[in-house]
Structure formats: structure tokens, C-alpha cells
Amino acid sequence: MHGMTVTRAVHFATSGGGHRRMRSGPMPEPKVEDRERVPRVARLIALAIRIDGLIASGAIRDQAEAAHVGHVTRARMTQILNLLHLAPDIQLAVMNLPPTTHGRDPIVERHLRPIAAEVDWRRQREMWTTCLGGDEADQLG
Of 51, 95, 99, 119, which residue is 20 to 30 A from 85 by alpha carbon distance? Predict the structure, then answer.
């Protein structure tokens, strides 16, 4: 008997029970949640800026109407718009956070709420530095 070589595309997938199994065929396209995504807090600040602009232009009457149009509670709309109380450089830093490639976002809205509640921008920057863990915030003014 002569040796025979078979070439076949395979990939490994995790089954429902957490076991890795070999599957035939090429690796499927990654799921949306496995691709890079803009952190949620960055999208929320962009949304807050957009809503604020719509209110300022008169396209939307007030926060209550924005909440109604956006299908969220007034309280939730307040939480979103309170992100505009962050110092401009912190807003910019949040909007420029690196994309999340897997797992949870490292900075979440819950981390930003106490910072936005602080009226002193100098104190906000100190809190932001702590939130980041130190080094990255040194680049802020």
C-alpha cells in the first residue's frame, strides 16, 4: 500500500458544552460581536452631542421630546445628556478610545457618571486619570 495525502480545510469551533470540535470547511466569518467596535460610551457621547444640536436648532423641542422620539425614559435621556458635562478634552478622549476587539468595553458609562457630576474640570481630569489607571490621561491638558 502506498501512502495517500488528503488536504482538507478545517477549523475548530466551540460547541454549546464548551468543547472544541474540529469542523470541516473554512473558518466562518467572525460574528459582529467578535469584530472591532466603537466603545458604547463613545457612541453615547456622539448621541448626546447630536441630541443637544437638535434641541439647539429647534428640530426637537426639549429633552422630554428627545426621550419620546428615542423611545427611552426621561431619566435615561438625562443620563445620556449629562455626558455633555464632561470637560471637552475628556469627551474627545472618550470618543477616541480604541475599538473594543473582544469582551467588554474597558470604560463604561457607569464610570463616567461621577466624573460628569463633578463641576470642576480640573477635578474631572483627576478622576478621569484614576479611571484610566494613570498613564493615558497624562496626555490630557
Answer: 99
In a domain, 66, yes or no: yes
CA distance 31 to 139: 34
SS3 118: coil
pTM: 0.70
What's the structural domain count of the chain? 1
Q: What percent of the chain has pLDDT over 70?
A: 87
Domain containing 76 equals 36-139
Residue 23 is classified by DSSP as: E
Give whole-number Cα distances, 80 to 41, 46, 72, 125, in Å.
9, 10, 10, 20
Determine the pLDDT at residue 136. 47
